Structures are given as structure tokens and as C-alpha cells.
UniProtKB/TrEMBL annotation, chain A:
UniProt function note: Has a role in transport between endoplasmic reticulum and Golgi.
GO BP terms: endoplasmic reticulum to Golgi vesicle-mediated transport; protein transport
PANTHER family in the cross-refs: YIP1 INTERACTING FACTOR HOMOLOG YIF1 PROTEIN (PTHR14083), YIP1D-INTERACTING FACTOR 1, ISOFORM C (PTHR14083:SF0)
Lineage per the UniProt record: Eukaryota, Metazoa, Ecdysozoa, Arthropoda, Hexapoda
Subcellular location: Endoplasmic reticulum membrane; Golgi apparatus membrane
Residue ranges of the TM segments: 181-201, 213-234, 254-287, 335-357
A cellular component term, taken from the record's GO annotations: endoplasmic reticulum-Golgi intermediate compartment
Superkingdom classification of source: Eukaryota
Keywords: Endoplasmic reticulum, Golgi apparatus, Membrane, Protein transport, Transmembrane, Transmembrane helix, Transport
Identification of the protein by name: Protein YIF1
Chain segments carrying region Disordered: 1-74
Topology of the protein relative to the lipid bilayer: Multi-pass membrane protein
Similarity comment: Belongs to the YIF1 family.
From TrEMBL, chain B:
Pfam family, one: Yos1
Superkingdom of source: Eukaryota
Principal location listed in the UniProt entry: membrane
Cellular compartment(s): Membrane
The protein's name in its UniProt record: Immediate early response 3-interacting protein 1
Record function comment: Regulator of endoplasmic reticulum secretion that acts as a key determinant of brain size. Required for secretion of extracellular matrix proteins. Required for correct brain development by depositing sufficient extracellular matrix proteins for tissue integrity and the proliferation of neural progenitors. Acts as a regulator of the unfolded protein response (UPR).
Length: 366, 81
């Protein structure tokens, strides 16, 4: 009879103890991994329960080859205790094909994806106001057509006031005077494509040019926005304009750029300059008329030193704030800012397009 | 033709320039020190006050990220020329 001092000596055949090795050299046995592979698995992983410490020394004289071992080694010696806790790659490969493992991996992956999506949405919501963005893209075809016509020919439009719906502006599809971001973004994409087309006509094109033009236009947008916001901050003018509104208004110049580019494309260099002049004048007129109501009507939060008593209805331009003596930044500063915007827009639209015009070449002359 | 990379470089250089302005040695000599301007709370709307406020806040906020950005840009330019 064998006298076994250990309590949990296994009595299955292959685990018969051959010798007692130096268990203290092994350290404490690490617990088995979380999953339990199916019994037919010959991966040499540790069994579901921790093996008796008495028998850890066994695989020391077993050959440490970790190929698919014979089924007698099914309950597996903790062969990897002498090595790193991770099994070598071949065993991982054969492990990954088991359906149980695949299910668990799929589930884990789904969980990770859901978590990641939630984190991304949360972080994005902190920097980009997604619900505000949705307002700017609520347009329909009629609005887009009328707005484009308005940008090109604003001289006959009479009613420039934006409609409000209890202090929030109405969606652009119901009010032609409301700013939107659809036209600027479409204009940006069209500008990039048109620039590539015109460069191609002059044999100056390569695929890198598209990305150069796109990133250049984007850099100018960013630079312009920073300039406007810095100017508004430094001159301490409180306006009812939000950042996205500014972005929308500065994106309308893409319409003028495209118009003048098309004119210059089909009819030559001089027509380009004429079209640029006319479209810039129209755009400036449009911007002045639209922004005058928003910039000159005072800020959303009137400061304490102002004499404005209608602080409970701040962003509504219906309250008469014209006669206020230099409060909230001064009317003069706002007028200057308005002029600044109205002048830089044509300048930028010229700067972004003049290098694309072929030098005094008419299409039919080719 | 400015690209996004040029814009990034230019803004990095500008931020560095703003952060390098020393408070004691330079700003106070020029009369732009921020410790003497707190007396007048009435003139908070002047352009000078706004600009100096902006400079001070840029300095406080971007001092540490600027170190990291500068190191990254230097490594990048060393590797790619």
C-alpha cells in the first residue's frame, strides 16, 4: 500500500507520481486558466483544477515538446510552469479553432466593440456638439437651390431677418436666411475636385495634387476660423454668432470660387477676373446683410455694466439694441469686424483660385 | 501653398514664442506684467488686457503639452528631413 502524505493525490494512471521533486523550487502553483477545453483536446494545458502540488515536478523529466500530445496527457501536466505562463504559438493556433473558444472570443470582441463605440461617442460629444451639427445639415433641395441663387444674386432679397422659434433659430429648411453647413461642405469637396480637374487640363496633375489641394484648403479654413475667433475674443465683442455659424458663413465663399473657376475654365482668364469681382461683391453684400443682424444685435449674455434691460431675451434681434451706447464691446468694433469679414472673404477666394487658372488660355484654342 | 503640416509647424512655433515670453525679465520691464494689472478692475475690456490675459492663459495651458509636441516634432523632422 502506498502511503501518500498528500491529500489530493490523483489516482488516475498517467498521474502516478514517479518521484517527489523539489516542489519548493517550483513556487506556488498558478491556477488554471479560465476556460476549460473540451476533453478531447490535446493541448497540454493545465486541467480545470489546480494540479496537486505533489506532482508538479513530473514534467521535468518529460520532454518539453509542446506539440499535440497524446491523449493520455489529457489532464495535462502543468507543463508550462517551468516556462512562461503563455503557451507557445502553435498551441494557441490549435486552441483558436475550438468552437467554444471562438464563441467566447466573438462575445468578447462584441463587448469590446460596444465599449469602444460608447467611449468614442462620449469623447466626440465633448468636443463636437453633434446635436448642433444636425441642425446645420437639416436642409432640403429647395433651400439649397434658393440659397445658392441668393449667394450669387442677393440684391433683390428683402427680408434678411432670421426666423426664431422661441429663441432658437428655425431649421434651415424652413428659413432661407439660416446658416447651414451643407453648402460649405459640398462646396469644399467640389472645389477640390474642380481644382484637380483644372490642374489636369494644364498637365499639372498628379494624384498627390488632390490631397495637397484638399489639405491646403482645409488649412486655410482652420486658419481663417482661428483668425476670426481670436479677433472676436481680443476685441471683446459678444455676438450672437456661434463658432459653427462662423464656419458656415465663411464656407459660402466656396460657391463664389467655384463660379469664378468655372467661368475662367470655359471662357478664359479675363472672364475669370470679372466673375471673381462680381461674385465677391455679391458675397460681400450677402454677408454684410446677413451678419449685420447677428453681430450688431449684441451678445448672448449682456455684461453687467451694459444698459440693456432685455437680458432675458438676449439672442433675439427683435429687441432694439441699436441705441445702446458702447456696451458689450462697442458698436464700432462690431462694424469693423463685419468689414474685416467682408473683405477677407473675397481676398481668400482669390488667393485660393488664382493659381488654378491657366495663364491666358482659352479652351477652344487647344 | 500652405498645407496642414505647414499650419501645424507655424502654430507650434507661434505657441513656442508665446510661451517663451518670460514673466519677470521681460513682461514687467515692458509694463505688461500681470501682477500690476489686477488693480484696475474697470478696464477689463481693453485690447491690451485681453491680449495679455490670452498670453498668460496660453502659457499656463500649453506649457506641458508643448514640451511633448516639440519633442515629437523634432524627432519627426530628424527622421524625415
Amino acid at each position: 500500500m502506498n502511503f501518500n502524505a498528500s491529500r489530493n493525490v490523483g489516482h488516475s494512471g498517467p498521474r502516478k507520481a514517479k518521484r517527489v521533486s523539489d516542489v519548493s523550487a517550483m513556487g506556488s502553483p498558478s491556477p488554471a486558466p479560465a476556460f476549460s477545453p473540451s476533453p478531447g483536446f490535446g493541448g497540454g494545458f493545465p486541467p480545470a483544477g489546480p494540479p496537486p502540488p505533489y506532482q508538479q515536478g513530473i514534467p521535468m523529466d518529460a520532454i518539453p515538446n509542446f506539440g499535440p500530445q497524446d491523449p493520455s496527457n489529457n489532464f495535462g501536466y502543468p507543463a508550462n510552469f517551468t516556462q512562461s505562463p503563455m503557451a507557445p504559438p502553435s498551441q494557441i493556433g490549435s486552441m483558436l479553432q475550438q468552437p467554444v473558444v471562438q464563441d467566447m472570443a466573438l462575445q468578447y470582441g462584441n463587448q469590446l466593440a460596444a465599449q469602444g463605440r460608447e467611449v468614442v461617442q462620449r469623447e466626440l460629444g465633448k468636443y463636437v456638439p453633434v446635436s448642433r451639427l444636425r441642425y446645420y445639415f437639416a436642409v432640403d433641395t429647395r433651400y439649397v437651390l434658393k440659397k445658392l441663387l441668393l449667394i450669387v444674386f442677393p440684391f433683390t432679397h428683402k427680408e434678411w431677418m432670421m426666423k426664431y422659434d422661441q429663441e432658437t433659430p428655425v431649421q434651415p429648411r424652413y428659413d432661407i436666411n439660416a446658416p447651414d453647413l451643407y453648402i460649405p461642405s459640398m462646396g469644399y469637396v467640389t472645389y477640390v475636385l474642380l481644382a484637380g480637374f483644372m490642374l489636369g487640363l494644364q498637365h499639372r496633375f498628379s494624384p498627390e495634387q488632390i490631397s495637397i489641394q484638399a489639405s491646403s484648403a482645409l488649412a486655410y479654413i482652420i486658419f481663417e476660423m482661428v483668425l476670426y475667433i481670436a479677433t472676436l475674443y481680443i476685441t471683446n465683442t459678444n455676438t450672437a454668432l456661434k463658432t459653427l455659424d462662423l464656419l458656415a458663413y465663411s464656407g459660402y465663399k466656396y460657391t463664389t470660387m467655384i463660379c469664378s473657376l468655372l467661368a475662367g475654365l470655359t471662357l478664359g482668364g479675363t472672364v475669370y477676373y470679372c466673375a471673381l469681382l462680381y461674385c465677391s461683391a455679391a458675397l460681400s453684400y450677402f454677408l454684410v446683410k446677413t451678419l449685420r443682424l447677428q453681430i450688431l444685435s449684441g451678445g448672448p449674455t449682456a455684461p453687467d455694466t451694459s444698459y440693456n434691460y432685455s437680458t432675458y431675451n438676449p439672442s433675439n434681434p427683435y429687441t432694439d439694441t441699436w441705441a445702446k451706447p458702447s456696451s458689450g464691446g462697442g458698436t464700432k468694433r462690431r462694424v469693423y469686424f463685419l468689414l474685416f469679414v467682408a473683405i477677407t472673404q473675397p481676398l481668400l477666394s482669390w488667393w485660393l483660385t488664382y493659381h488654378l487658372i491657366p495663364p491666358s488660355v482659352v479652351l477652344q484654342a487647344r | 501653398m500652405i498645407t496642414l503640416w505647414n499650419l501645424f509647424e507655424a502654430s507650434l512655433l507661434c505657441l513656442n514664442a508665446v510661451c517663451v515670453l518670460h514673466e519677470e525679465r521681460f513682461m514687467q520691464k515692458m509694463g505688461w506684467g500681470t501682477n500690476t494689472q489686477q488693480q484696475g478692475f474697470e478696464d477689463q475690456s481693453t485690447i491690451k488686457f485681453q491680449i495679455l490675459n490670452l498670453v498668460r492663459s496660453i502659457r499656463t495651458v500649453t506649457r506641458i503639452p508643448l514640451i511633448i509636441l516639440n519633442i515629437l516634432t523634432i524627432i519627426f523632422k530628424l527622421l524625415l528631413g
